[in-house]
């Protein structure tokens, strides 16, 4: 009888210990699941946020109805994974084209920069959306190809402007420190008129879409 009671006590104690260990393991698993569900997800590994990034981008646009190359960069501080604020700039140049008034080849070139604000939707997902917007100022030059023999250019006219440029991007979290985005922006410059001799460089010349690819490096 004593042996039976001892065995029952040992079995009861073992059962209580097993249940306690199982409960502790369940709590640990739940904690791990919670951490997993809240951490950044990437296409090629885990991701942590340290709150900032640097980026460069390049894109295609039309300026004055001519093919145009654009390029730029920015640096931003990220708040709570979902909002970024920073500074950046952009440069542009369109293709050479003949101006009948000047009887020369001409092109438009310039740049602008300012404050970037960026809202980021579902930033912890490997594929998500971002909505950058630029508030800034810049300038545009109306340039003629002055001397083919010496390969020199001459600035015929120059104008300054203010600009707002909203955009949307599809971003991919490639690794914990790199993202790539594919998007478009739209330029809204204030009124200007450069190249008044030919009248070909005004606000409508610069207004339009840019289609770009952006590379971001940092801690998100």
Q: How many structural units, i.e. domains? A: 2
Biggest sheet, open or closed, and with what strands and sense?
Answer: 8 strands, antiparallel, barrel
Based on the structure given, which CATH architecture of the largest domain is correct?
Beta Barrel
Beta content: over 45%
The CATH class of the largest domain is: Mainly Beta
What is the H/E order?
Answer: HEEEEEEEEEEEEHE
Mean pLDDT across residues: 81
Please provide a written account of the structure.
- With 220 residues, the protein is an alpha+beta fold.
- It folds into two domains: 1-38; 45-219, Porin (Beta Barrel).
- It is 19% helix and 62% strand.
- It is built from two helices and 13 strands.
- It has helices at residues 2-38, 203-206, and strands at residues 40-41, 46-47, 52-63, 66-79, 83-94, 97-99, 104-121, 127-147, 152-175, 178-189, 193-194, 201-202, 208-219.
- The strands form three sheets. It has an eight-stranded antiparallel beta barrel with strand order 3-4-5-7-8-9-10-13. A two-stranded antiparallel sheet has the order 1-2. The chain has a two-stranded antiparallel sheet with strand order 11-12.
- Strand 4 and strand 5 form a beta hairpin.
- The protein starts with a helix and ends with a strand.
- 27% of the residues are buried.
Would you spell out the secondary-structure blueprint of this structure?
Blueprint: H1 2-38, E1 40-41, E2 46-47, E3 52-63, E4 66-79, E5 83-94, E6 97-99, E7 104-121, E8 127-147, E9 152-175, E10 178-189, E11 193-194, E12 201-202, H2 203-206, E13 208-219
Antiparallel strand pairs: 1-2, 3-4, 3-13, 4-5, 5-7, 6-7, 7-8, 8-9, 9-10, 10-13, 11-12
């Amino acid at each position: 009888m004593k042996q039976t009671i001892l065995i029952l006590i040992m079995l009861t104690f073992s059962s209580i210990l097993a249940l306690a260990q199982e409960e502790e393991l369940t709590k640990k698993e739940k904690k791990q699941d919670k951490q997993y569900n809240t951490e950044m997800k990437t296409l090629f590994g885990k991701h942590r946020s340290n709150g900032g990034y640097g980026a460069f981008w390049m894109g295609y646009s039309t300026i004055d109805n001519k093919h145009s190359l654009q390029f730029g960069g920015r640096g931003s501080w990220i708040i709570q994974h979902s909002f970024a604020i920073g500074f950046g700039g952009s440069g542009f140049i369109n293709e050479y084209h003949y101006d009948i008034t000047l009887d020369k080849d001409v092109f438009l070139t310039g740049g602008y920069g300012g404050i970037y604000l960026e809202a980021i939707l579902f930033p912890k997902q490997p594929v998500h959306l971002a909505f950058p917007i630029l508030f800034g100022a810049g300038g545009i030059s109306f340039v003629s190809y002055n001397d083919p023999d010496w390969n020199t250019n001459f600035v015929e006219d120059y104008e300054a402007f203010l600009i707002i440029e909203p955009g949307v991007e599809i971003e991919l979290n490639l690794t914990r420190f790199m993202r790539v985005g594919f998007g478009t922006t739209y330029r809204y410059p204030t009124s200007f008129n450069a190249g008044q001799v030919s009248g070909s460089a005004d606000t409508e010349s610069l207004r339009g879409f840019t289609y770009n690819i952006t590379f971001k490096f940092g801690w998100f």
